[in-house]
Amino acid sequence: MSPADVTTEIELEDNSLAAQVCGPHNGHLTRIERKLGVTINSRGNRLALSGEPDAVGSAVSVLNGLYDRLLKSLPVDKEEVDAAIRMVSQRGFTVADADTTIETHKRRISPRSPNQAAYLNAIDESDLVFGLGPAGTGKTYLAVAKAVERLIQGEVDRVILTRPAVEAGEHLGFLPGDMREKVDPYLRPLYDALHDMMPGVQVAKRMESDEIEVAPLAFMRGRTLSNAFVILDEAQNTTAVQMKMFLTRLGSSAQMVVTGDLSQVDLPRGTRSGLRDALETLRGLDAVRFVHFSQADVVRHSLVARIVEAYDNVERCRRAAAPYERSSGEQ
Fold first, then answer.
1. Could you give the CA distance from residue 87 to residue 93 in angstroms, rounded to a whole number?
2. Can you tell me the distance from the alpha carbon of 71 to that of 96, in angstroms, rounded to the nearest whole number?
3. What is the distance between the alpha carbons of residues 242 and 237, in angstroms, rounded to a whole number?
4. Confidence label for 176 from pLDDT (cuts 50, 70 and 90)
5. Suppose 235 and one of 104, 120, 169, 260 were both cysteines; which one would form an S-S bond, judging by CB atoms 3.0 to 4.6 Å apart?
């Protein structure tokens, strides 16, 4: 223990909840110790923490945040421990700042990173929100969760989920089956999110009554979408014309969320992404909110964040080398 280290003690009033904060075999405490660089000793419902002042302060915030979750009957597992650590790792942000909880039939969902919390706040405050960033950051999942919550609470009449079927392109007619069977594979992530939040019978019933619609982007043309929560997923694979078409479908008492990752554009070479075009065109509009995610917000397997970072590093090196390669080729 260095001279600059401090020691502090906290007491969690409910013994049974204190045990859940500590985790099986104190596994949650071990996780906090490793990631924040502190030492935690538990004696019943009393926890003694030592380490650098900032690290100890962060650990105390994490532990209190986890205890507050349990008081609200919310689960605490290793993913939630990681989420709490992620929250306090951003200066000025505490677990309490992410107190938003989404209620669906099958689960209660709360943000697991500061940007996720900002994203949910943006959805609550604006009728058009763009969520941008790498895979695994919860852009689509949280948007679908919000849409399901609004539908259950009667705040919207229907939920519309759409994405471009870019990979199918002109060859859609060569795939086996009817139109729905042809496009369903491209919409499967949206179906998966729905089934994670509602019983399958409910999903089927609401789809049959058109309260929930999952359709390719091309099916949106010519429509006015009112009293609806509309999500455009994989928006980086829209063209500028398609994006304008989609955004101008917004009707009265409706809300749109657009998600995408500009590092994974599958459009033909030379085709400008509608998502990039929309960012440049709409950035000055106060009523439109943009939330940018990074690898720090990845909430899938911890390796996913490292994979995203590795690809980003390689891409930066390629861009840095590109001017030299072009000039060398011209000589």
1. 6
2. 13
3. 10
4. low
5. 260
Closest alpha carbon to 10 in 52, 54, 65: 65
Token digits of residue 54: 């900032």
CA distance 275 to 239: 8
Kind and range of the H or E run holding 214: strand 212-216
- 86 in Cβ contact with 112 (< 8 Å): yes
Phi, psi of 122, deg, nearest 5: -65, -40
Query: What are the respective helix, strand and coil percentages of the chain, to the nearest 5?
Result: 50, 15, 30
Token output for 37: 């660089």
Mean pLDDT calculated for residue range 84-92: 74
Contact criterion met (CB below 8 Å) for 130 and 258:
yes
> What's the pLDDT tens digit per position in 25-44?
999 999 999 989 999 999 98
Cβ atoms of 29 and 10 closer than 8 Å? no
SS3 308: helix
